[in-house]
Amino acid sequence: MDLNNIKIAVIGLGYVGLPLAVEFGKKYPTIGFDINHKRVNELNEGHDHTLEVEPEELKQATQLSYSADASDLEQANIYIVTVPTPINKFKQPDLTPLIKASETIGKTLKKDDIVIYESTVYPGATEDDCVPVLERVSGLKFNEDFYAGYSPERINPGDKEHRVTTILKVTSGSTPEIADFVDSLYASIITAGTHKAPSIKVAEAAKVIENTQRDVNIALINELAMIFNRMNIDTEAVLKAAGTKWNFLPFRPGLVGGHCIGVDPYYLTHKAESIGYHPEMILAGRRINDNMSRYVASEFVKALLQKGITVKGARILIMGLTFKENCPDIRNTKVVDIIDELEQFGANVDVYDPWVDAEEARQEYDVSPVSELNDGSYDGVVVAVAHKQFIQMGIDGLKKLAKPDHVIYDLKYIVSNELADIRL
After folding, report:
1. Residue 237 phi/psi, 5° resolution?
2. According to the model, what pLDDT value does residue 417 have?
3. Which residue among the candidates 43, 200, 256, 260 is catalytic per the annotation?
4. DSSP letter assigned to residue 66
5. SS3 175
6. Could you give the CA distance from residue 182 to residue 187 in angstroms, rounded to a whole number?
7. pLDDT digit string (tens) for 192-211?
8. Which candidate in 10, 14, 212, 382 could, as Cys together with 265 as Cys, close a disulfide (CB 3.0–4.6 Å)?
9. Bridge partner residues of 33 (DSSP)
10. What is the Cα–Cα distance from 266 to 252, expressed in whole angstroms?
11. What distance in Å separates the CA atoms of residue 327 and residue 320, rounded to the nearest whole number?
């Protein structure tokens, strides 16, 4: 197979799949496939509700078509899987979307086709979990009739600087020849270049430790913040001082949600435990970060009580619902845990987020964001996400929303320490 005779199918048109399909669709015949008919319809109408791809850029992908009909996949000879890889309520990997995507591909898989996975998994998942499904459904034999590759996604939702083409891409393949082909395929659209890993397992492991490393580092800073708060020391001031050393890593405390950092470590720990190793540091970091919402709510309640504000019946405004700033992504957001904690104390909680689709928030978390804010209404305000709109408000805008006696909790350091009543 050569690049002149390919037709690509991208399976899953979310935050990862759509930008990738658009880039391939600028150069190669490409099918963007998703089981969500509503998603396919909006893309056919030239709109992306995730805001990752602008309408003008969608138009530039002149060789890209969208479909929710699996029979359209028969035209493809390269399949790229970009479906979610979540965890279940027991914090165990849920490979259901990956397995179902593999079953769908298996029904149309042909001799010499290549299936490339981008979804974050534990080392070995492609060859041990996905390939057997492809073999079973298609009746073809791996590395004789069809081949596989793995190229981990590195999409950063809401980031307009680091785009799919400007982030160096790790690639791999199930044979040396396929590895070369997969590398050349991505190199044809990735301006930042590629790194060909020696095996699929190495590429899988590289991806899963990228976010595990960030998770552990953020957990350390979160723990330091809790220690410094007890000592009445400004954590941000400490980090700025320490940051004057050239090799100090610039992490900040906060909530760890989203589709990657709060999820990927559990894929690695699951695999580690399956081979008889208990990963202590990784799981300790996960415990700290998973409990930050409870800590935030507790500190906020203490601050309210210290000002003589009765928590039960208090009106609280949570500013921001997304897992990060300036994007509409609410996947695995930890802000909902703060809401739950405060409601258990008897507070009346409003949530305001100009980036969020209200219907999606209701469906995912049973949260109904308010559409407008009333001045002087709140006993407490929690700045949970650093959206640009909130930064522009400044401390005067935040105080304007609150009653004369109030508490402003700035989780994201959008105002200086002496202006906020409490900071993380």
Report:
1. -65, -40
2. 73
3. 260
4. E
5. coil
6. 8
7. 999 999 999 999 999 999 99
8. 212
9. 11, 67
10. 22
11. 11
Residue type, 398: L
Nearest to 156 by CA among 327, 42, 285: 327
- 338-to-124, 365, 382 alpha-carbon distances in Å: 36, 12, 10
Structure tokens at 246: 């050239």
What does the pLDDT read at residue 320?
97
Q: How far apart are CA 357 and CA 257, in angstroms?
A: 18
Distances (CA, A) of 10 to 50, 65, 68, 251, 352: 17, 10, 12, 34, 35
The pTM of the full predicted model, rounded to 2 decimals, is 0.94
- The token duo for 6 is 């390919």
**Rounded distance, CA 89 to CA 290, Å?**
13
How many whole angstroms separate alpha carbon 43 and alpha carbon 38?
Answer: 9
Average pLDDT over residues 171-178: 98
Residue carrying structure tokens 């009746």: 139
Closest CA to 335 of 305, 280, 297, 368: 297
pLDDT band at 422 (very low <50, low <70, confident <90, very high): confident
CA angle 214, 215, 217 (to 5 degrees): 65
Q: Say if residue 392 is exposed, middle or buried (CB neighbours under 10 Å; 0-12, 13-18, 19+).
A: exposed
Count the helix, strand and coil residues of the chain and give each as a percent rounded to the nearest 5: 40, 15, 45
Q: Where are the beta strands (DSSP E) in 141-297?
A: 147-150, 169-171, 194-196
CA distances from 214 to 12, 171, 258, 293, 367 (A): 26, 22, 13, 18, 29
Question: Per the structure block, which two tokens stand in for 31?
Answer: 């099918």
Q: Residue 100 belongs to what H/E stretch?
A: helix 96-106
Q: Which residues sit opposite 408 in a β-bridge?
A: 381
DSSP annotation of 315 reads E
What backbone torsions phi and psi does residue 49 show, to the nearest 5 degrees?
A: -70, -15
Q: What is the DSSP-derived secondary structure letter of residue 343?
A: H
Q: Give the 3-state secondary structure of residue 30.
A: strand
CA distance linking residue 322 with residue 254, whole number of Å: 13
Model confidence band, residue 415 (pLDDT cutoffs 50, 70, 90): confident
User: Do residues 362 and 338 lie in contact, with contact meaning Cβ atoms separated by under 8 Å?
Assistant: no
Q: CA 136, CA 275: separation in Å to the nearest integer?
A: 26
The one-letter code for the residue type at 14 is G
Taking a C-beta distance cutoff of 8 angstroms, is the pair 254, 218 a contact? yes
Residue 33 near residue 70 (C-beta atoms within 8 A)? yes
> Which DSSP symbol is given to 39?
H
- Would you state the structure tokens that stand for residue 323, as one six-digit string? 């897992």
Under DSSP, the state recorded for 4 is: G
